[in-house]
Amino acid sequence: MDQDLKKVAAGVGRFFAYALLAAFPVLMLRQDILVLGNAVGEDSLVEACQLALLGLSALAFALLAWCRADDRRFAALAAVFFACMLIRENDAVFDQALFHGAWKYLVAPLVIASLVWALRDARALLAGIARFLAAHAGTMMLLGLAILLCFSRLFGMTEIWAAVLGDGYVRTAKNAIEETGELLGYSVILAASLRYLAQRVRAQVRERRGLGKVAGTRLAAERRL
């Protein structure tokens, strides 16, 4: 009975956490449109939140690579992947600061170097990917990527909203829909990144405690002898 109540309570807690996760992008859009009065462009709050969530996702996997040697190949590759996405999202900044398309030349060496390093131990890399995909956080990550790369792009297609809005079509509406969908994807991705980081760190703590108990038992047995 008590265990069932705990599971139900945990499920209710997860629902409210997911509800906040889903509401966050809409609240940021509301701030942009109704408070800041911008067109959800490059300087919008929604865009800034996207960059922040991407950076935090990259940092989460970088921390995982630092904390756990058995996850290092996969986690470092994931961190570089999200770092490259962050660079791509800042392409307009690099276009102005350097030259048009500069982000590609920044991303290319990172991708090549990280792949070469990760594939030096392909077995550890594959094991890390498999472990991640088998976890609940892995399923959440796949959902976040699907929202980001598929749903937001398709749902934000210009021809759809031009047909729906007709003569009332304005690009701000299309931007708002697409960018808010992207922010939802980034939110789910960050939640998955943090969840997996916490899971693997907790597992490491339990492993160390287990090794400590085993070592303590052996030492006590040796002393009795």
Automatic annotation (TrEMBL):
Transmembrane segments: 12-30, 50-67, 102-119, 140-163
Keywords from the UniProt entry: Membrane, Transmembrane, Transmembrane helix
Name this polypeptide is given: Transmembrane protein
UniProt organism field: Stenotrophomonas ginsengisoli
Organism phylogeny: Bacteria, Pseudomonadati, Pseudomonadota, Gammaproteobacteria, Lysobacterales
